[in-house]
């Protein structure tokens, strides 16, 4: 099959029939993964809400002097990891704001303490944080990543990408990492065997051409490194943010999801987002190209801060997947299946 080009993708995002796109994307996913839809049990640990970037689309950050600013102690972080392990989690995703005066040694100590006390995968720190750590330490991105890897960091989440077009980034997060820097962090990580995911946030006032430009930059880097395990689309949650505005529609999200499966032909896994879309749309995402529904989110604070919150458990996740006629399976960070749940539900 000929590879979809940027012009075709843009045209389909503007006027493509979402049902037809869903059928094509769903067929592509089934060709690769059959009827299996995976999820992971993990915990998001936001170690601080203090952030010097002050992005207009973020409802989570606080200035250091704010009365509700916080920085978790190591004991508090270890307590959260312990709770996650006790609940069956195989991964922790530690992310926070860009705290103005913590050194790289702080993060190295955090990682070592977790690895010394628990057998768990640390899939943590966005490219934005990595750049911040490296700048504070006065070292290169590559050297920073090598030190974090030696301390216990296993892989990188794809957060901080939003839309990888500087015109959009300058408008919604002018202090944040720009496109080339985000891609450089990921390329450095991939070069030392540290795989990652990639994300995209839609509904930030970007054009369809800019969405495709974002996908193209990820696709090009993946051609070069092969280090992205998954691509995840979120929709902007405008509640309690300076940027404000309206949520993008469910149809826009589903059309975009389908295009990511068809366009990102070299990224193996496409994740559907029940966290921002809710369970009903989340349940439909496998029919539009998703083969994974991400985490049951034992803890989630960033989306919740914008006024969007959905509860999930292993049983609810399995029921959601089986209820749509798919085979539910729990995975680890590397997408190895570690548990399968019964057969497909009879949904006739």
Give an overview in words:
The longest helix has 18 residues, at 208-225. The strands form 3 sheets. This protein has a 4-stranded mixed beta sheet, with helices on one face. It is built from 14 helices and 10 strands. The protein is an alpha/beta fold and 348 residues long. Helices cover 43% and strands 14% of the residues. The radius of gyration is 19 Å and the shape is globular. Mean pLDDT is 87; it is low at 300-310. Strand 5 (196-202), helix 9 (208-225) and strand 6 form a beta-alpha-beta unit.
Shape: globular
N- and C-termini, Cα separation: 33 Å
* Uncertain parts: 300-310
User: Secondary-structure element sequence?
Assistant: HHEEHEHEHHHHEHEHEHHEHHEE
Q: Main beta sheet, described?
A: 4 strands, mixed
Return Rg in Å: 19 Å
Strand-residue fraction? 5-15%
- Structure annotation, total helices: 14
| Mean pLDDT metric | 87
Q: What class do helices, strands and sheet pairing give? A: alpha/beta
Strand arrangement in the largest pleated sheet: 8-1-9-10
Number of strands: 10
**Residues in helix, %:** 40-55%
């Amino acid at each position: 099959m000929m590879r979809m080009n940027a012009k075709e993708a843009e045209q389909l995002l503007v006027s493509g029939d979402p049902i037809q796109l869903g059928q094509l994307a769903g067929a592509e996913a089934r060709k690769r993964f059959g009827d299996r839809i995976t999820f992971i049990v993990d915990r998001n640990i936001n170690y601080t809400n203090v952030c010097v970037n002050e992005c207009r689309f973020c409802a989570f950050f606080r200035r250091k002097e704010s009365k509700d600013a916080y920085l978790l102690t190591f004991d508090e972080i270890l307590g959260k990891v312990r709770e996650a392990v006790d609940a069956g989690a195989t991964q922790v995703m530690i992310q926070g704001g860009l705290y103005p005066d913590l050194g790289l040694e702080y993060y190295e100590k955090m990682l070592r303490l977790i690895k010394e006390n628990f057998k768990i995968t640390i899939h943590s720190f966005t490219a934005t944080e990595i750049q911040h750590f490296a700048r504070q330490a006065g070292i290169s991105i590559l050297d920073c990543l090598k030190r974090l890897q030696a301390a216990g960091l296993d892989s990188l989440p794809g957060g901080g990408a939003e839309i990888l077009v500087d015109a959009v980034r300058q408008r919604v997060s002018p202090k944040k990492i720009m496109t080339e820097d985000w891609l450089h962090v990921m390329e450095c990580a991939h070069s030392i065997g540290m795989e990652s995911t990639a994300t995209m946030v839609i509904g930030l006032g970007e054009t369809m051409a800019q969405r495709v430009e974002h996908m193209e930059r990820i696709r090009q880097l993946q051609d070069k490194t092969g280090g992205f395990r998954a691509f995840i689309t979120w929709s902007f949650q405008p509640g309690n943010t300076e940027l404000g505005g309206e949520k993008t529609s469910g149809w826009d999200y589903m059309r975009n999801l389908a295009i990511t499966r068809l366009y990102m032909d070299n990224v193996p896994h496409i994740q559907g987002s029940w966290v921002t879309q809710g369970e009903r749309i989340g349940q439909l995402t496998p029919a539009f190209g998703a083969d994974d529904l991400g985490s049951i989110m034992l803890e989630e604070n960033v989306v919740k801060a914008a006024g969007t919150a959905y509860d999930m458990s292993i049983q609810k996740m399995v029921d959601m997947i089986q209820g749509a006629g798919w085979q539910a399976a729990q995975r680890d960070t590397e997408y190895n299946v570690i548990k399968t749940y019964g057969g497909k539900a009879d949904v006739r």
